[in-house]
């Protein structure tokens, strides 16, 4: 009888211990909450701007190198922290210009984002629009100094395919020129140089890339060598000129409301006649308006 009672008590205690362990394990293992919800754009914009202002107030660039050798276009932009040894340096904050870029959140609210920039050296050529192709060298880094991309050899960038901050800044620069060498190579010279600082909504925002954590403000230093005005839809009208409302932004023009912006739409008014055909039939360089209603034929679906 004693052994039976002892056996019963041992089984009971084991059951209690096992139940307790199961309970602890269950409580200790939280359910997978899934991916982090995307942050509110307006709140993140304020957080990023505070971080950018702190950086600009505590860092400087090698402006003295450019001032002492103004004809040398091979000097690269470098950034450093202001400390006791170089406390006499002028901070970025005292040199930057500001450009406000308005974004819309999911509810359609307008969120102004500040882009800070310095045009370090003026080029001798034309400036691009925000929709052209550009031949550039550049360095991209985080506020902690980590470099995530660096191109020493120039590469072509269609500004429609880069982050918003990049395409908003490039029109602030002007291109350079080049000299063809006897061996078929060429030297790039007299190009525009600048550095800009953008909040994450003008960069990659919530994307978590290998070298760029999500919600990271970004720094780019850029040299602009050449500009190629683009005609994305090959309709004979430069993409920069496909801006019928005249607000300077071809991205928001969609005359026939087919969800294809005019600069990508070979038939802007959706009347079945290609824009290239309707634009200037008589070849006088002026858009045709056959019914004289003030709307060019290529934008007038009622004039076919």
List descriptors.
304 residues; 5 helices; Chitinase A, domain 3; 6-stranded antiparallel β-sheet; two-stranded antiparallel ribbon; disordered N terminus; alpha+beta
Characterise this structure.
By secondary structure, this protein is an alpha+beta fold. The chain folds into 2 domains: 41-228, Chitinase A, domain 3 (Roll), CATH 3.10.50.40; 231-304, no CATH class. The chain is built from 5 helices and 10 strands. It has a 6-stranded antiparallel beta sheet with strand order 3-4-9-10-5-6. The chain has a two-stranded antiparallel ribbon with strand order 1-2. The protein has a two-stranded antiparallel ribbon with strand order 7-8. A hairpin with a 5-residue loop joins β3 and β4 (110-121). The model is unreliable at 1-13 and 15-30 (pLDDT under 50).
């Amino acid at each position: 009888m004693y052994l039976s009672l002892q056996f019963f008590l041992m089984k009971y205690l084991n059951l209690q211990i096992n139940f307790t362990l199961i309970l602890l394990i269950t409580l200790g293992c939280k359910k997978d909450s899934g991916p982090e919800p995307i942050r509110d754009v307006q709140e993140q914009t304020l957080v990023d701007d505070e971080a950018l202002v702190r950086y600009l107030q505590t860092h400087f660039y090698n402006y003295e190198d450019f001032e002492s050798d103004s004809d040398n276009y091979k000097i690269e932009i470098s950034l450093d922290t202001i400390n006791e040894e170089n406390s006499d340096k002028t901070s970025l904050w005292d040199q930057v210009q500001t450009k406000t870029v308005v974004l819309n959140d999911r509810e359609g609210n307008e969120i102004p984002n500040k882009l800070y920039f310095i045009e370090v050296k003026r080029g001798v050529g034309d400036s691009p629009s925000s929709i052209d192709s550009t031949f550039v060298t550049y360095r991209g880094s985080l506020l902690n100094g980590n470099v995530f991309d660096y191109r020493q050899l120039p590469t072509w960038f269609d500004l429609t395919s880069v982050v918003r901050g990049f395409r908003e800044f490039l029109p602030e620069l002007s291109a350079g020129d080049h000299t063809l060498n006897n061996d078929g190579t060429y030297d790039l010279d007299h190009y525009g140089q600048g550095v800009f600082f953008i909040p994450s909504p003008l960069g990659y925002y919530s994307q978590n890339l290998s070298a760029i954590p999500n919600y990271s403000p970004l720094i780019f230093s850029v040299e602009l060598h050449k500009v190629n005005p683009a005609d994305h839809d090959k309709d004979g009208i430069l993409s920069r000129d496909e801006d019928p409302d005249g607000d300077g932004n071809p991205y928001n023009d969609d005359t026939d409301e087919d969800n294809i912006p005019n600069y990508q739409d070979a038939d802007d008014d959706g009347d079945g006649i290609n824009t290239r055909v309707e634009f200037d039939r008589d070849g006088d360089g002026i858009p045709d308006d056959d019914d004289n209603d003030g709307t060019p034929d290529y934008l007038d679906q009622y004039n076919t």
